[in-house]
């Protein structure tokens, strides 16, 4: 069954990548502003002063407007840095320092705080390919977030950022897949 889930995930990820590539620049800019507004509301609802987020890549839902807003509000933002052991390390965002990762996504530069730094966050914002209505998140297949979130005790609320059509009835699941507390899409926030 795990092999079937892996095959289903691979096909679904390819379909989602193709759909995301078809979004025009104007649509992506509009979605980024809408996402920023909803993420700001989420931060306010949780009274968050220290959050983790990610640097969005070219075809991902755009977190950049939100990250710019957070820096003007004095919110501490932890950005992920991949580790060879498959976990994520964290750096405090300075709003500028990044490099392209060998796997194609942008990665922050800065002083590494260690994986345990995530435990001090009030809110965790993660990327996803798709999320189902039960809160199961399907990532991009590298497992960084599943391993990191699965290793935490007393995890703060976790929200995935996706496009509206990526919230579906069910996603293929494997035993290591982690759930999220909700999703943020251009049209709003859904809590599970």
UniProtKB/TrEMBL annotation:
Substrate binds at residues 55, 60. ATP binds at residues 9-13, 137-145. Its EC number is 6.3.3.2. Its cofactor is Mg(2+). GO terms for molecular function: 5-formyltetrahydrofolate cyclo-ligase activity; ATP binding; metal ion binding. It holds the Pfam family 5-FTHF_cyc-lig. The keyword Nucleotide-binding applies. It catalyses: (6S)-5-formyl-5,6,7,8-tetrahydrofolate + ATP = (6R)-5,10-methenyltetrahydrofolate + ADP + phosphate. Keywords: ATP-binding, Ligase, Magnesium, Metal-binding, Nucleotide-binding. SUPFAM superfamilies: NagB/RpiA/CoA transferase-like (SSF100950). GO terms for biological process: folic acid-containing compound biosynthetic process; tetrahydrofolate interconversion. Belongs to the 5-formyltetrahydrofolate cyclo-ligase family. This is 5-formyltetrahydrofolate cyclo-ligase. It comes from Pseudoclavibacter helvolus.
């Amino acid at each position: 069954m795990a092999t079937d889930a892996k095959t289903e995930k691979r096909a679904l990820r390819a379909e989602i990548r193709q759909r995301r590539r078809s979004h025009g620049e104007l649509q992506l800019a509009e979605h980024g502003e809408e996402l920023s507004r909803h993420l700001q509301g989420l931060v306010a609802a949780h009274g968050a002063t220290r959050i983790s987020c990610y640097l969005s890549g070219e075809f991902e839902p755009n977190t950049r407007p939100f990250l710019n807003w957070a820096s003007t509000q004095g919110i501490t933002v932890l950005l992920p840095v991949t580790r060879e052991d498959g976990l994520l390390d964290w750096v405090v965002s300075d709003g500028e320092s990044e490099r392209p990762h060998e796997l194609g996504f942008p990665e922050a530069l800065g002083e590494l705080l260690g994986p345990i730094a995530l435990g001090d966050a009030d809110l965790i914002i993660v990327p996803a390919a798709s999320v189902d209505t039960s809160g199961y998140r399907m990532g991009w297949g590298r497992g960084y977030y599943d391993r990191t979130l699965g290793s935490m005790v007393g995890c703060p609320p976790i929200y995935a950022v996706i496009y509206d059509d990526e919230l579906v009835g069910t996603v293929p699941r494997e035993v290591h897949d982690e759930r999220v507390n909700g999703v943020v899409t251009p049209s709003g926030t859904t809590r599970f």
